[in-house]
Amino acid sequence: MARHIHIAPDPVTLSSLAAEQIVTAAQTAIADHANFYIALAGGKTPQRLYEMLARPAFANRIDWRRTHVFFGDERCVPPDHDDSNYKLAAKTLLSRVPIPTGQIYRIKGELSDAHQAAREYAELLLERLPSTPLGVPVFDLILLGLGQDGHIASLFPGTPILQERAKFVAAVHEEKLNSWRISLTLPVIEAARHILMLVAGEAKADIVREVLYAPNSLARFPIRMIKPSAEIDWYIDAAAASKLGDFNEQQNLA
Ligand code: 6PG
Known about the structure:
single chain, alpha/beta, seven-stranded parallel sheet, three-stranded antiparallel sheet, 32% helix
């Protein structure tokens, strides 16, 4: 597993470095197989990245006619709800770039049956994405955030969905949040050509250190459980990296 840790001095530099990485991934994918398949993250951290990607300096270097946007997870709310990951991405990025609306594939969080929404989304992935010889859908890039408890997408530590190897999308009721979520599962994240972890803020400093360096983190944290053949790039701002001390594989971009 190739893991690269990039530490940016501040959240603005962090977002522009991650945006640059996405532009490169898009250009590489389109040159290689004529299309770019990306899964966006939810939560708050990617907002600045999405706003930056929509600016001409980045947006003009992505061929949006050949870009297909999916989501790593969704909350079980309608697309116009403030908690909707789709709504965040639509407002800050997708409504500002020339991507055909037919190439934006949101998870139907509004469906009363979350399992049905998960099944439908899994079918869509199989229909629209290339797949591995074993039939696992392959994204060119999956953007992920990191929760303070170490969750990625809606894959929470210690939950049964982490054992899910047959389904590519699953619905999960997260007790702590007392709410349903729909999420890509580990096999799909594992099969991605590129994984971009985006983490910012001092509140994440403890979990970043634990996930990256705690001895038993392999068994506890979803991002450490995957056996990716792909690259993982961690983009972390200085505040979130403030407890990494002098672990030597970091690449300070100060
Ligand atoms: C979600 C996300 C989730 C998120 C982390 C970090 O739907 O909430 O997909 O995995 O990335 O919770 O969220 P913040 O960026 O808000 O800290």
